[in-house]
Amino acid sequence: MKIRKFWLFIYLLSLLNNNSLQQSCVNTWEADLANPNLNLCPVLTASGEECSFPFTFNKIEYRSCQINNGNTDKIPQCYTSSRVWSNCILPTNAVITRVTTRKSGSTSTNTVSLNGGTLIWIIGRRFAMNTFSFAPTNTTSNEVYLTTDTKSYNCEIHTDKVTTTQVTCYAPAVPAGSYLVKVKVNGELIPIYQYENINNAYVIASDSNTPKINSIVPMSGVPGTLLTINGDFKTACYTRDEDGCSDDSGARISRIYFGGQICNLIDPNTNTLYQALSQYSLKCKLEGSEINVFNSSILISEQYGRSLTSRDAYLISPDEKFYNFRTYP
User: Fold this and answer.
1) Signal peptide: which range, if any (predicted)?
2) Per-residue pLDDT tens over the stretch 294-327
3) In terms of DSSP bridges, do strands 308-309 and 212-217 run parallel, antiparallel, or are they unpaired?
4) How open is the CA angle 126-196-116, to the nearest 5 degrees?
């Protein structure tokens, strides 16, 4: 009886150890593949076989599925035990090709404003088709994040331009630095090995790329006051119809806001600018009739985004609110 109990104990212990080993494996799409000591979980393929990790291709050893093995659709594939390529069965087979901050731009055009508002274009394959919904879910859409080793910032999806081969989002305000763009498709993060070239998936936030507002004259007035704004807007274009502004991917002044009110560059009576526009100075007329204090913001298209306002352009209201312009009756 004691011998039987002993062997039963050994059997149960072996089952426990096997189960523990199975549970301790890490999925390739969640693993730090630079760590050679990880126990990787098996990956099934469309052929019914498992990936034969590690495998060697073009004299390089791989521990994950690959997209740069010559298949034109860039579907993640691996060598199987029978030494043939087969499509990997993964949580997502979406691929990131490159990231840019200008329509049809190259990977070298990848700067964003420190104050956010820059439209980021992510080019790839097999993204989800984001559609408008009052209750969007992460299982039927794309999510984009600007990431460092320690931080992650949500990038608001611009659904109008999303297709299965591109995702667009508005960059948030971030500190100066370099950010790797990461994407979730239907709730699943695209792993690093499904980037065609990881070096082409970064954006850089910098002060030199950020539009500036240095002063506003006057800083108070009745609703409809004509205002002069000085700074560095990165462009002197506001429409494609002007000379030198016809480039479809060139930057232009999209909107000028004071709080929720628009400041208009065009005199509606003459259909001309209130003042000849330059990169460093403009005149606009505040629309609306609200009596309040306001903060200004200029939105520049393409790689520039939302402006930052100089500290010298702020006043403090009696109730201790910072503002750039105040209206009175």
Assistant:
1) 1-22
2) 999 999 999 999 999 999 999 999 999 999 999 9
3) parallel
4) 75
